[in-house]
């Protein structure tokens, strides 16, 4: 079984090679990049957090450091899950383009939900007034009310979109397997 993958890192090239869906192959590339970026943010953020609290004795700070890593895991796991699900399915029962495409789309939706969750949780003093953007001669202002609505939500609601979309990734896997 020289074609078999060896864990999380080997699942990415394995899934890329064996999938027939171009959307899924795009997700493998974008998902890998997003996973690396999120992991780096979490690692560098943890280093900064430890550096700022190094002189303080343990206790609740140790718990907050662990919680920081746990939040990072909850962000990276749904990014990697579609690739792992597809690699496992291809290894065990062969190809299914609909399954691959559906998981790729659910993974992309999860990526967007992370961004939406971040917009919701922006502190009030850091929020900027949303403005329409221009693409050549066309001005697009439909997103302005959406961003204003997201800014008006309580910051804790920023957990809802990523959580719901992580469950969506798992739900798509369970329904289509």
From TrEMBL:
In the UniProt record, does the keyword rRNA-binding occur? Answer: no
Keywords associated with the record:
Membrane, Transmembrane, Transmembrane helix
Taxonomic placement: Archaea, Methanobacteriati, Methanobacteriota, Stenosarchaea group, Halobacteria
Domain annotation DUF8056: ranges: 1-177
Query: Where is the chain membrane-spanning?
Result: 26-55, 67-87, 99-120, 156-176
Protein name per UniProt: DUF8056 domain-containing protein
């Amino acid at each position: 079984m020289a074609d078999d993958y060896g864990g999380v890192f080997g699942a990415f090239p394995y899934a890329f090679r064996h999938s027939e869906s171009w959307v899924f192959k795009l997700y493998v590339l974008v998902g890998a990049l997003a996973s690396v970026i999120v992991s780096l943010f979490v690692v560098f953020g943890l280093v900064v957090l430890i550096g700022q609290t190094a002189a303080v004795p343990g206790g609740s700070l140790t718990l907050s450091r662990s919680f920081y890593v746990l939040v990072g895991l909850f962000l990276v796991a749904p990014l990697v899950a579609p690739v792992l699900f597809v690699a496992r399915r291809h290894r065990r029962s062969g190809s299914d383009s609909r399954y691959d495409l559906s998981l790729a789309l659910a993974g992309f939706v999860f990526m967007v939900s992370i961004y939406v969750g971040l917009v919701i949780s922006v502190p009030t003093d850091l929020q900027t007034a949303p403005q329409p953007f221009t693409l050549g001669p066309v001005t697009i202002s439909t997103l302005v009310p959406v961003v204003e609505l997201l800014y008006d939500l309580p910051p804790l609601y920023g957990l809802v979109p990523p959580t719901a979309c992580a469950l969506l990734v798992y739900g798509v896997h369970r329904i289509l397997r």
